[in-house]
Write a structure and sequence with these properties.
- The structure is a homodimer.
- Chain A is an alpha+beta fold.
- The first copy, chain A, has 17 helices and 16 strands.
- The first copy, chain A, has four domains: 1-45, Helix Hairpins (Orthogonal Bundle); 62-205 and 373-406, Bira Bifunctional Protein, Domain 2 (BirA Bifunctional Protein, domain 2); 207-340, BirA Bifunctional Protein, domain 2; 411-503, 3-Layer(aba) Sandwich (Rossmann fold), CATH 3.40.50.800.
- In chain A, the strands form three sheets. A nine-stranded mixed β-sheet of chain A has the order 1-4-5-11-10-9-6-8-7. Chain A has a five-stranded mixed β-sheet with strand order 13-12-14-15-16, with helices on both faces.
- In chain A, helix 1 packs antiparallel against helix 2 (28-45).
- At the A-B interface, helix 2, helix 3, strand 1, strand 2 and helix 5 of A face helix 2, helix 3, strand 1, strand 2 and helix 5 of B.
- Chain A: Homodimer.
């Protein structure tokens, strides 16, 4: 036993060592070595079958949804799904795991965050990391050349979750994508329209949608003199401009990433700019940028986009922002990101973005990676970051002290005296058969007070009370829980009366 | 390269060897050994990073849902969820994986069918095998003593899928459970009422709900003389009576499982019986069974249950069936299973059950396994087997030649539409704005479509539609809209 305890201690220490190395971002080989040592030690401990430990937790980075959280979630999904449907999208679903090979090579550095399944003698599987790669696989598999689809499902990433900040390892994504070869920028504009409709309907405050284009970024870096090999890493520095100052970003680019200061300055001249379509016009006239073919393409498309966005009535919510870089792995054209704006503390200050709630862009090359003949299917889409929205809506409901019901029960069937279970069962069955949402307490002889209290706690608006005398008279008491007003209703009229009261828009129960 | 090809061939052969052993149900150690060999060979092959193979398939036993299948699924879930809500259930959700320890020791022999996640240096995880164990974990974790909840989600089992028969490795379960200490049989009766409401609303044909009780089964085996050690295995033989004859079942019990023939005969006297509450009464008078305390408890509760089911108006759908045994691992009381009935080929024959579509029962000991102090929370619940129902509904829709709506686009921004806007006065709309007129137009269409559905199969023959306009263009557009709508 002492042996085992010592072994368990070694496992614990080695586990901490591994965690420490990961935090320090040690080299991949070093981490792998220490993980292998850890696995060996664990193997020595032997299997744990039968030992009943009382593990009362969900895995790290995951959580249950309580009924209250489900009610919030349902409201949010309702808004999102009706918007997707309003725009004519079909819906699909895919398995929670894919063949490991399907996900391999699609996520760059983030590949280490993929959950693998154990090799149990069959196919090698991994949990999906997003909904975009499964979508591309679906298109190629079914040889589809065009579709407009939405997909709402959970995805899995072995992140270091900061759960207080809403970062989970299992979380929902709501994706909408348009695949197909179409005339330029119309579907792209519709995606932005959808994003704006959803964020407005959710009533989570003012927002701003930043737009940029990968070709403009690439062109910009080229004319500033960024070496090709540094494109990605400079991109991720530039992307930080929404959180830190230009000085800090410049220091990182020059100090850490070895960029020539002059080049950094030239980048600075561009990326600190943001504006509307006038900025697009201005850059189209820029003597250097207009010499770059890629940048011209990007700017030309953005000009068309802004025309469509104006026709869609949302141009005032869109900002062409040269610092928007985003994870550019598979994006090939326009990219966008929506941020919520905090009301400024002092008048005259610009609103501060507090983090993105939705994002997307065009990715024309992904499906081609799945097609044996490399046939391309251009795609553009968006993803709503609902976990953040859940928190915001939950907070808002708490602040308003709005009571969120977790059931939809309309009537409780109650009894005033003992030995009335039979009547309650008969009556509640009648209500169910008539489509009325009803409950009864699972007690043979419940006290009336307890039954009324149950209604109050659950927010049930109506209660029918069966009483001995009323039974003889052929009536039932129908009571409004809120107002405590009671009427006698004839048994045969009860269903009708309940339906009448519950069908009115503002329940006058 | 030839080396690699040879290695790949070895891996393939070893993989087949492993599969063969599993099919023959070889010993666990033997299988483990061969799997270890397979893993070693694969490790020699090395990692496959970067090599772009065109793998265009979903994993074995899983499938995508196309828009059409999603439309079917949505219809079915709508029926089920409204029933759960009508009965006052809350809804919860849990993660797709649990700590491996949470699932360990809960599924008996089926434990080998659990999907494990790779040990990547953190917690050991497994994909959930059902929704009941996560529910028990949720109750214990939140120290809840009563709740009425439903949960609709996918579960994962490394079965040998027979996909033509609708057996998948990833599939939906719709669970409804009532947890809490209550007066006997009321929640149990409500579960059966819910099952009947759902199966009726889905309109997938006639069905029957078989009911039994674990205590009755245990008591029955005891008085027949089944040794305690053989209870489970005899149970699973008896459970096959819905598919095979009594002779076959008896042969298995006596021939394969070493039961004394006399004991088998005595079991046979009981388990071939099924009926209504009168059978319960009869067994309560049975000289031997009534001596067994457990059986008496079970029979007493079933009697109360039948009273409540009569008040709920569903007693005619319920059959007390002594051969219903089900996977009894965590059930402690009443158990039930709903089967669809095939219309008999010849008149006078009894309808044949074609497989279960829903099941459940009472399980009072599960939550206690999670509570550090072993505190019990009694539970009763049901699970709807929706995958079978999806197939049936899909087939039914095809048979009726109904087109399933896959989009809810109300207005086609098309040339046709713009030419019909000028005719909008016929629908009573004077507005030339597209969206509002479209909505009103569609709702009138809906009314007409519903009416015409009742009269004849084809909407085109509806007299009311042709009344609307003699103009061919107008009529064509409306017909086209109906096609899309339906």
């Amino acid at each position: 036993m002492a042996e085992r305890a010592a072994l368990e201690e070694l496992v614990r220490l080695q586990g901490e060592r591994v965690r420490g190395l990961k935090q320090q971002k040690a080299s991949a080989e070093q981490i792998e070595e220490e993980v292998a040592k850890l696995l060996k030690l664990k193997a020595q401990l032997g299997p744990d079958e039968g030992k009943q430990k009382f593990v009362l937790k969900t895995p790290k980075g995951t959580r249950d949804y309580s009924p209250r959280q489900m009610a919030v979630r349902e409201k949010v999904f309702d808004v999102i799904v009706s918007c997707f449907k309003r725009h004519g999208a079909e819906v699909i679903d895919t398995p929670v795991f894919e063949l490991k090979e399907t996900l391999t090579g699609k996520y760059g550095e983030d590949s280490k965050l993929i959950y693998d399944l154990k090799d149990q003698g069959g196919e090698l599987l991994s949990l999906r990391y997003d909904l975009t790669v499964p979508f591309a696989r679906y298109l190629a598999m079914n040889k589809l050349t065009n579709i407009k689809r939405y997909h709402i499902a959970k995805v899995y990433r072995r992140d270091n979750p900061a759960m207080t900040r809403g970062r989970y390892r299992e979380f929902y994504q709501c994706d909408f994508d348009i695949a197909g070869q179409f005339d330029p920028m119309i579907p792209d504009a519709e995606c932005l329209k959808i994003m704006c409709e959803i964020l407005s309907s959710l009533q989570i405050g003012d927002f701003l949608v930043k737009v940029n284009d990968r070709r403009i970024l690439d062109g910009m870096f080229a004319i500033c003199g960024v070496p090709d090999s540094k494109f990605r890493t400079i991109c991720s520095s530039v992307d930080k401009l929404d959180k830190v100052s230009w000085e800090e970003v410049k220091n990182e680019m020059v100090g850490e990433k070895g960029l020539a200061p002059k080049v950094a300055d030239r980048i600075g001249d561009y990326v600190q700019q943001h504006g509307g379509v006038s900025l697009v016009e201005q850059l189209l006239q820029d003597p250097e940028l207009s010499q770059n073919k890629q940048a011209l393409e990007g700017l030309g498309d953005l000009k068309i986009l802004f025309e469509y966005l104006t026709l869609f009535g949302i141009a005032d919510k869109i900002s062409f922002d040269l610092s928007l870089a985003r994870g550019l792995d598979y994006y090939t054209g326009v990219i966008y990101e929506a941020v919520l704006l905090q009301t400024p503390v002092r008048a005259g200050e610009e609103p501060l973005g507090v983090g993105s709630v939705a994002a997307g862009g065009r990715y024309d090359g992904l499906v081609g990676m799945f097609d044996p003949k490399g046939r391309k299917v251009p795609c553009v889409g968006l993803s709503i970051g609902v976990e953040r929205i859940f928190s915001i809506v939950e907070q808002r409901l708490e602040a308003l002290e709005e009571k969120v019901r977790t059931t939809e029960t309309q009537v409780l069937v109650a009894s005033a005296q003992k030995k009335l279970l039979e009547e309650r069962l008969r009556l509640v069955s009648e209500l169910w058969d008539a489509g009325i949402k009803a409950e009864l307490l699972y007690k043979k002889n419940p006290k009336l007070l307890n039954q009324l209290q149950y209604c109050e706690e659950a927010g049930i608006p109506l209660v029918v009370i069966i009483g001995e005398q009323e039974l003889k008279d052929g009536v039932i008491k129908l009571r409004s829980v809120a107002s405590r007003e009671e009427v006698d209703v004839r048994r045969e009229d009860l269903v009708e009366e309940i339906k009448r009261r519950t069908s009115q828009p503002f329940c006058i129960c």
